[in-house]
Amino acid sequence: MRASSRFKSVFLEQMLMGFQLSGFPCRTMSLRARMQAIKLSADVAMAVARGSRRWTHGLIAHLSKKEDNKSFLKCILGKQYERLTMPCYSSWKIQRCKTILRRSFRERFGKQKPAQACTLARSLVKKRAQVLKRLVPGGKAMDGYSLLDETMDYVVCLQAQVDLMRHLLGAFEASKLRAQTKGTSSQGRKSIKDETDGNKKDLIELCMHLSDNA
Amino acid sequence: MEPRGSSGVGSGNSGTYTPEIAESLRFEEEIQSLIDPSFDASSAAGGSFTALLGLPANQAVELLHHPGPGEPPASAATDTLRLPFGCSSTFVERAARFSVFATDDSPASSSGGGLSPGLKAEPPDSDSPPTLPAPAGKPRRPSKRKECEKSKVSRRPRWGFLSRKAVAKKSKSAEENTSAAKPAAEENTSGDKLPYVHVRARRGQATDSHSLAERARREKINARMKLLQELVPGCSKITGTALVLDEIINHVQSLQRQVEFLSMKLAAVNPRIDFSGLDHILSAECGPLAVASGCGGGASDPAMWASDTAASTGGIRRMPAPPQIWHLDVVHPQQSSTVWENNGVAHPHFLLSPATSLVGYDPASSVPLNSNRLKTEL
């Protein structure tokens, strides 16, 4: 199951736009800050490209919790920002009745039934489901079936993201190499122009690659 | 089925033996030889019971009662031939023959009810336990074994615990066991594929709407799990929900770590990259896509989030940027970095670049038209 080409192209555009937004040419950022900015823009691009899913809502809500990201998100999302970062999306929990919870706690810590195979299997599965809920954004509010659904979607999108970023990295590195080789030969202002040309070539290759892949 | 006074099974009882009984005894002997490598078949004078007698009583009882290798495993000729101790072809053949006997005598051979007619005749008796379904509960098996043995053992007065009275009692108790265990058998066998004449509903389940709904839900979840298994590499061979979930968790974690690692590498590579030019390229390459999909303008804004499909580039147009900057950029579409430096100091996060990109996305449209469109979306 692979993501569609349209998804990938939108993703790429959004990501590059996000890079620009976070002010990349500004050299004062440390490596860590740059890394976080890249990751943020990549995640937001993925969420925006995917559209409206539970995990995308959860992801954006999670990202908007940090103060630094809010302005970035506002820019990207525009009008949608207010709607999407409502508290319900971020702190979405399944409403559980207190008496039931109390009863279940009592059962758990009261008498322990002898571990049968079925109950053991169920407890194992439950533990893993809890871990998965933590991993998938917005997973706390999902029941078993929708959790699996969202996980599937999320995995597809993550794979596409990794793919895209790898290609992007390759393109940038190639351009850098080209710039370096050209830089040794001809120095001065020309190198910048060559770089942009190199970037353009690389990105053209990247887009071709994307369209080919899809 | 009278107790024999003689010690030797073979010679003394040959007169009363039917050929099938002899067969069954030889069957037993073979089993014994397969179980016990030290067992000397030749020493057994004509029958397995002398061989059994050779063993101490406890061991023999163990062998009889243990549902393990000592039990003739063939449930049906064609079906599940459990051969836990090697595949002897003669064994298989004999098992097949016996099952044929069993089916002849007891029509409902697979069901527990087939036992009562089977009790009367000896060879089917020896095979009615084997023809029982494999998942039959263990407590049932020893009782069946006892029945099976009772006919043969009835000649052996040394088997005190299987005297005739005891045998009669045991047969009754066995019958009770079978009748009690019938529902269990039903429940088991309804899941197995056995030649029932009529199908019984699962015990206390089918008519209940709750359980039906639960079953439907379980099947949905299983379908999703299968899809996930196909998605995650190396998961298709794994059976069991917990292990598959383990793999999925590992895969998600590894993907997230890869994203982090790649973003760090991109950050390391990045400093000299000029992003302005990229948009133009992107617009050139992906222009047809963008134009085709995202011509809605303002309408694309809600549409993007409403629809599930990967939306158009209309989202990009939703940039709230101060109009003056647009005009500036409209005038200087090519000089992005300089524009940044001029205007971007106050708000480095704000969007000269999206404006350039917006311009870039509509290279064909005229400039004032573009700005008008952008204004309307504010």
Automatic annotation (TrEMBL), chain A:
Keyword Nucleotide-binding in record: no
**Domain IBH1-like N-terminal, chain residue ranges per copy:** 5-66
Q: Does the keyword Transcription apply?
A: yes
Biological processes per GO annotation: regulation of DNA-templated transcription
GO molecular-function terms, A-Z: protein dimerization activity
Task: Enumerate the UniProt keywords alphabetically.
Answer: Transcription, Transcription regulation
* UniProt xrefs under PANTHER family: TRANSCRIPTION FACTOR IBH1-LIKE 1 (PTHR33124:SF5)
The UniProt entry's sequence similarity note says: Belongs to the bHLH protein family.
Q: What is this protein called?
A: (wild Malaysian banana) hypothetical protein
Automatic annotation (TrEMBL), chain B:
Alphabetically sorted, this entry's keywords are: Nucleus, Transcription, Transcription regulation
Could you confirm whether the keyword Amino-acid biosynthesis appears in this record? Answer: no
| PROSITE patterns per the UniProt record, alphabetical | BHLH
What is the annotated localization of this protein?
Nucleus
Q: Which CDD domains did the record assign?
A: bHLH_AtBPE_like
Q: Which stretches does the entry tag as region Disordered?
A: 1-22, 103-194
- Classification via SUPFAM superfamilies: HLH, helix-loop-helix DNA-binding domain (SSF47459)
Q: Does the keyword Hydrolase apply?
A: no
What are the GO cellular component annotations?
Answer: nucleus
Q: Which GO terms describe its molecular function?
A: DNA-binding transcription factor activity; protein dimerization activity
Q: Which InterPro entries match?
A: bHLH_dom, bHLH_ZIP_TF, HLH_DNA-bd_sf
- What residue stretches are annotated with the BHLH domain? 205-255
Family the UniProt entry places it in: Belongs to the bHLH protein family.
Q: What's the name of the protein?
A: (wild Malaysian banana) hypothetical protein
